[in-house]
Structure formats: structure tokens, C-alpha cells
């Protein structure tokens, strides 16, 4: 069960974020082809926990920053996350037809447009955040620092690399650290970047930004371990996507490597380490600490 | 025939750029999976005119900037251009097996890795240029301005949008401006961004940067018109890729819309307008002016 305070905070921020996202999606910029826009916004508006933008905004607030000011960064994080989901679902990759209970992008728009919508969202994330942060008067040096961390999380040593490790059989190794590397690159780096960019744009010191980085790493690992567990233990209704895909695709996961019981212990251990990473924040850390402990018990 | 001075300048800068590119590609950053790196660098090192990085560097030099300082931007432009070629060649898109006389990325690495290599190059362009320009002491405000223009050229209203117009039948219209819009978004915006980012990072005034933007727009249109012409008139050996694809795929091009003779006239007209756009640069503009006139006569 998720802690009530955490649940309330997540829901409040999800609604706030989705209001802004829906307003952004409601009017197409003139130069974007209508069909491309439709495909991009279909997936952007397909729901989800909105965890990355929420972490970004909460991190900014916890160090005294303003929510509205980091909004472009929060939107960029969700754009990139959405782009990676669209591409991961393609027939050439995970070949998934269901995501968050809805048909995946390529099922509706075809492979070509799904590829281009992913590319477009990836690039738009940079375009939108650069312009949005400038317009809000964020100092250029903070913008460059935050976007540099963001880009690193997205690129070949971040989620793109993680997806290769996850889908390319020739990259598989049997090393114990391999499954952790997948989790770090596939999931943890972007959660980490959400927190660290939020902290930096909110005005955090390097030390505090670093603590958020450590928290994000443990949170991301916990999150991915639970994801691997849920793929084995959930029904499609609970999960909102097709479970059992990891096994069907012979993926290397925390469950295949360590077994269900050990994986549960590992998730709890990472959650606890996440919670401890933010002790220097004092009472501002309570939400993040409770969140880490709740996430290890989530059911979707 | 290409003007000798232009030819020499292009070749000198191509060699300089490729030296840096090859040195970058020669050592894999630790966190990038080996197979992904192989796929990314295969396409990056597959040759080509390197026109975008050369335009960027020459624009910077023409306003008194240093070549070495804008190198990260030049590399980023080539990364994004390469990413777009990898995705355009995919079976779901143009389904091309030959590019610059070599097998296309997906022919060697498969569709999944080709999709991810394109994504990775797209994100790496931002990661690499942000860090590289910071390390070289470029003022953050110039970095933000240049990357903002770059991102816009890459995103949904830039080359991603152009590719949708080019490949998605549902986006086709018969309007006369449609073929020009494809050319602008597919080709001109990135050539434009190459010139404008180079000028900005080289220290140009807004007025000069604007002149480069105008030049790039005409140059890009001329370039695309000639591309459409060559697809009809060239052999595979001359072109280094498969000709006749436009007709086979029933694409709307300058040749299908206006005929070969009229298209030739249009290319020449755009080249001339390009050359005139830079009059305020005086003798620094000579290379660019001769280049524009040469490009309208290129044979590959």
C-alpha cells in the first residue's frame, strides 16, 4: 500500500502537470505537419504516472525553486520518456501492441510515423526546454548545466544504450552486473536526471544536486526491479500492458538472474538506500523518502 | 563544373573535419554498449560531403570566429544528419539498401539497432555539443541561442516534419507550396541551422546571423531541387545511392511538379538569390557565393 501523503502529493502534481501538458497539446504549432502532431500527442496524452516530471518539479520545490519555472524541463522529460516508449514498442523492438491499456503508437499510425513521432519528441524536448527556460529567465549557465545532464541521460550512455543492452542478444553477457547496468541505463539515469535537473534549476548547491543524483540511482534500481517483478506476477488489467513479455522474449531481468524472493529483497534494499541518500535535506526530504519506500511496494 | 577555389576549400575542410570525426570515433566512451557504438560510428564514418559541418565552421570563420571552438557544433550537425539518414533508409520508411555506395545501417545491424543508433546519435548531438562548447569556454548565452536554433531545425517543425511530409501519403496535398515546404523542412532548415549556429558561435551580430539564415534557406532549396533532378538523371555510380527512388515511391518532387527544365531554372534562381543574400559580408562572402552557384551544377 502506498503512503497516503505520498499518494496525495503524486496525484496533486500529476493533475497539475497534465493540465499543462493538455494545454500544450491542444494547439498545434503551424509548422508541424498535422499527422505528425496527432501521433506525437496521442502518446504524450496516453496517461501514465508522470513520475519523471513530478520528480523534477518536487526536487525544484524542495530546494526553494518555483514549480512554474521548471515546467519546460518537466515537459521535456515526459517527451523523451514518451519517445523511448514509442520506439521500444515497435515491431522491430519489443513488438508491443498495448501500453497503458491503449493501442501503441505504431498500431494506430504505422511504423514510419511512429519512428518519426519518437524522433520528433526527442528533438522537441530540447527545442521546447531551451526556449521555455530562456523565456522564464532561467540563467543560461543553469540551462546549459541542466540540459547537459538531461542529454547524457537520453543518449548512448543513457536510455538509448540501456535499450540496446535490453534488446540486442549480441550485447548479452552473463555477468552479474549486466542486469544492474541495464536497469541503470534503461530506467535509473532518466529518473536521476529528472531529480538533478529539477534541483539545479531550482537553485540547489552542487552537494544537494549530488545527493539527488544518489537518491535517483537507488530509486531507479528499485523501480526497475519492481518492474521486472510485476512482469511476472501481474495480470494485464493490473499492469495496463502485456505482462510475461520478458520471459517470452528471453530477457535478462532481476527475476531471471536472482529469483523472485531475492529480487523483492533487493528492491527493498535499494528503496532504503534511496531514502538515506537525502538525509541532508532534513524535513524537505520526507516526500522523497516515503516515495522510495512506497515504490518498492507498487502494483503497477 | 565546380569552381576550383570552392572545391579546394570544401576538400580542405572536409579532411580537417574527418580527422576530428575519426579521432572521436576511434575510442568508445566506457558506458556506450559496444554494438551500439559500432552501429553509430559505421554510419558516421560512411563518408559524404560533410557539407553541414563545413558550412558551420566556414560561417564562424567568416565572422572572425575560431574553427576549433565551433567544432562540437559541427560534429553535432553531422550526428543529427547521420541519424536522419539512418532512419530514412529503414524498411518502414524509404527502404534503401545503399547509401554513399555502402550498405545502409539496418542492412548490417538490423532494424532495432538502426533505430536505436539513430536515436542515440540524435541525443548525443546535444550531449556532445553542450559539453564541448562549455569546455571550450563559449559563453552559456551563445550556447543556449545556438542550440535552440539547432533543436528547432531537428524537431517536428524541422527535419522530422519534413520527413513526414515526404513519406506519409496522408499528409500529401497538391498545393504548389507543398513541394517547397518539404524541401524547406527536409533539407533547408538544417543547412540554415549549420550556417546560423556557426555565425552565432563565431560572434556574429544578429543582422549577419540573419543574412546567413536567408542564404541557407535559398541554398537549401537549390540543394533539394538539384537532389530531385539527380534522382531522375543519374546512374547509381554517379550518385552513390539508388536513383529513381522518388518515382518508384510516387514522391512529390520539384521534377514531378514542375518538370525537369523548369526545375533546373528554379535551382539556378535559388542559387543566385542565395549569393545575393550575403552582400553585406563583402569579401568574406566570396566562398559562400561561389558555393551556391556551384551547388546548382553538382552531379552528386
UniProtKB/TrEMBL annotation, chains A, B:
Enzyme class (EC, first level): transferase
One biological process term in Gene Ontology: terpenoid biosynthetic process
Keyword Magnesium among record annotations: yes
GO MF annotations, alphabetized: (2E,6E)-farnesyl diphosphate synthase activity; metal ion binding
EC number: 2.5.1.10
Named cofactor requirement(s): Mg(2+)
PROSITE patterns the UniProt entry points to: POLYPRENYL_SYNTHASE_1, POLYPRENYL_SYNTHASE_2
One cellular-component annotation, GO: cytoplasm
Signal peptide: none
Keyword Magnesium: yes
Keywords annotated in UniProt: Isoprene biosynthesis, Magnesium, Metal-binding, Transferase
Family according to the record: Belongs to the FPP/GGPP synthase family.
NCBIfam families attached to this UniProt entry: FPPsyn
Protein name, per record: Geranyltranstransferase
Organism annotation: Aminobacterium colombiense (strain DSM 12261 / ALA-1)
Lineage of the organism: Bacteria, Thermotogati, Synergistota, Synergistia, Synergistales
